[in-house]
Amino acid sequence: MTNKLYHFAATLILGFLFSATAAVAQQAAGTLWSVDFVRTKDGQYENYLKTVEKNWAVARREMQQQEHIISYKVLAVPPDSLKEWNVMLMTEYASQKDIDEQEKYFQTIFADKKIFPSGLFTIAGLKSADLREIKFSKVFRMSPDAK
Question: Cα angle at 109 between 35 and 87, to 5 degrees?
Fold first, then answer.
């Protein structure tokens, strides 16, 4: 029984050391980019980009001011130029912890009446989610040497 207890304690300590080492290595390895590849619904390209500007970008500016994210970008191609996706929503984070906690931060911001006094922007009652489909999402690590 004592050997099992020592084995369990050693496993916990080693696990903690490895996760702490991994966290330091992760930060040294570069920032993380969370990227959503979005396909706008037919006829909704311009409307979707308006909701991105008035909701998504506003929330990210606030997240940047609160130092929860480093930066953000929206890349778009003409609606008919790619079949799979036509908008990339990119958010740069310092660590995996920031990515893991993003929903908590965003929900707080979206509910903040100082930031969104009338609630989230909609077009004819349609929310951003009604205007697009997220085809897939990926997290990329930026090389620390990249500029």
Answer: 25
Is residue 52 within 8 A of residue 139, CB to CB? The reply is no
Strand order in the sheet with 132-141: 71-76, 87-93, 32-40, 132-141
Whole-structure pTM value: 0.77
Report pLDDT digits (tens) over 100-123.
999 999 999 999 999 999 999 999
Cα 84 to Cα 135: distance, rounded to the nearest angstrom: 7
pLDDT for 138 beyond 50? yes
> Cα angle vertex 49, ends 116, 69, to 5°?
60
CA distance 69 to 80: 31
Longest dimension (CA), the chain: 68
